[in-house]
From TrEMBL, chain A:
Its EC number is 2.5.1.18. InterPro entries: Glutathione-S-Trfase_C-like (IPR010987), Glutathione-S-Trfase_C_sf (IPR036282), Glutathione_S-Trfase (IPR040079), Glutathione_S-Trfase_N (IPR004045), GST_C (IPR004046), GST_C_Tau (IPR045074), Omega/Tau-like (IPR045073), Thioredoxin-like_sf (IPR036249). GO terms for molecular function: glutathione transferase activity. This is glutathione transferase. PROSITE patterns: GST_CTER (PS50405), GST_NTER (PS50404). One of its GO terms (biological process) is glutathione metabolic process. Residues 89-220 form the GST C-terminal domain. It catalyses: RX + glutathione = an S-substituted glutathione + a halide anion + H(+). Pfam families: GST_C, GST_N. The lineage of its organism: Eukaryota, Viridiplantae, Streptophyta, Embryophyta, Tracheophyta. It comes from Sesamum radiatum. GO terms for cellular component: cytoplasm. Gene3D superfamilies: 1.20.1050.10, Glutaredoxin. Transmembrane segments: none annotated. Keywords: Transferase.
Automatic annotation (TrEMBL), chain B:
This is Glutathione S-transferase. One of its GO terms (molecular function) is glutathione transferase activity. InterPro entries: Glutathione-S-Trfase_C-like, Glutathione-S-Trfase_C_sf, Glutathione_S-Trfase, Glutathione_S-Trfase_N, GST_C_Tau, Omega/Tau-like, Thioredoxin-like_sf. It is found in: Cytoplasm, Cytosol. Its EC number is 2.5.1.18. The keyword Transferase applies. Is involved in the conjugation of reduced glutathione to a wide number of exogenous and endogenous hydrophobic electrophiles. Residues 4-84 form the GST N-terminal domain. The lineage of its organism: Eukaryota, Viridiplantae, Streptophyta, Embryophyta, Tracheophyta. Belongs to the GST superfamily. One of its GO terms (cellular component) is cytoplasm. GO terms for biological process: glutathione metabolic process.
Amino acid sequence: MAGEELILLNFWASMFAARVRIALKEKDLSYEEKEEDLPNKSPLLLKMNPVHKKVPVLIHNGKAVCESLIIVEYIDEMWSDRAPLLPSHPYARAQARFWADFIDKKLFGAATKIIWSKNKDEAEEGKKELIEILKQLEGVLGDKPYFGEDVFGFVDMALIGYYVWFQTYENCADFSIEGECPKLMEWGKRCLERESVSTFLAHPNKVYDLLMSFRNKLGLDYV
Amino acid sequence: MSKDEVVLLDFGLSPFCMRVRIALAEKGVQYEAQEEDLFGGKSELLQKSNPIYEKVPVLLHNGKPILESTNIVYYIDETFASPTLLPACSYGRSRARFWADFIDKKVFDGGAAIWRSKGDKLELAKNEFIDILKKLEGALGDKDYLGGDKFGFLDIVLIGSSSWFPAYEKFGGFKIEDECPKIEAWIKRCKGRESVAKTLPVPQQVCELVGMLRKMHGIE
């Protein structure tokens, strides 16, 4: 679309920013990516997201859209002529929004417990919560190729950013997600066959290195 | 519209259920409300319809459950034609969703921090809550409604939450009209609408419920 300016305020390892990068690619949109140094947030980020001061932020012709799932819906509505990201039927949309919200409410909390755990007990507690949540999601997936039925969609996008963090969770809490949720791992590999996902997701090893560097700085060194 | 069966699993004093009742009233949708006894024992229908959270509200539309109050209001807007509750333009909708998400993340828990606290913690909770309201006051600006000229989606989301403000004022020892006069004026303006006036409880009922919750939590 001529005259459209899209800027994404990004962080490469963020599972939330990943959703937006994937959505933009699915819609085949050109944009400028500005990488944020999270300990030193840019004046642009602070101006565009004064309430939360978080990435991702999509700036469309100078106007800021914040919160990753809200950005994905915005992208879907603005460029509704191609590659739908949400289902068209209101009930299916309600289901998609519910599960994306479940992922944000539950998964992030459990994952946080694991990655910032100060000892093995805390990591173990986080691990048990995470496994329960992943099993619930695996139940929702069932035998479908994607959460969006036959097509990669909103819930798939909501979850796939976490997939590259799975190796980190496994290392921190000494368990195998493949062993606990094999169908979910298959789903992850299936998603990675999509160009939008494989090109725009961070590498699991780099994500683990990043976490370890943060943990070292904080003196959390039992892992 | 023929044979649309709409059932709301409800709790009269829940700010989240109020959002749904107001949205249904705005759309003129006929429905059956089934009051849940949240303290005595949740119904089998609630447990079956919302096995993940076992919470109200749940909207059952022709038997299919829709969960989470903000999600339900989106569904009501997309399913029942008029009047439209969300703004017409995509950017306006993204701003409405952003502030609805902010309200969901901050207001109820911020208020709970007030009625669950004493002493220094109470003072801190009160100040944090006022800060949250000031941000919402900023979003309101000089507009009549959060949605602009018209009462809409975002007003519905916050006015439900505002039903518990009298309890926060009572237990927090402050008045919203002193701290955030524009929000107070907006509340009064919204209460002038029939859908809101018929839905919101009298402040005393909410204060009694929160008083009971405080006893349950050992605060008093």
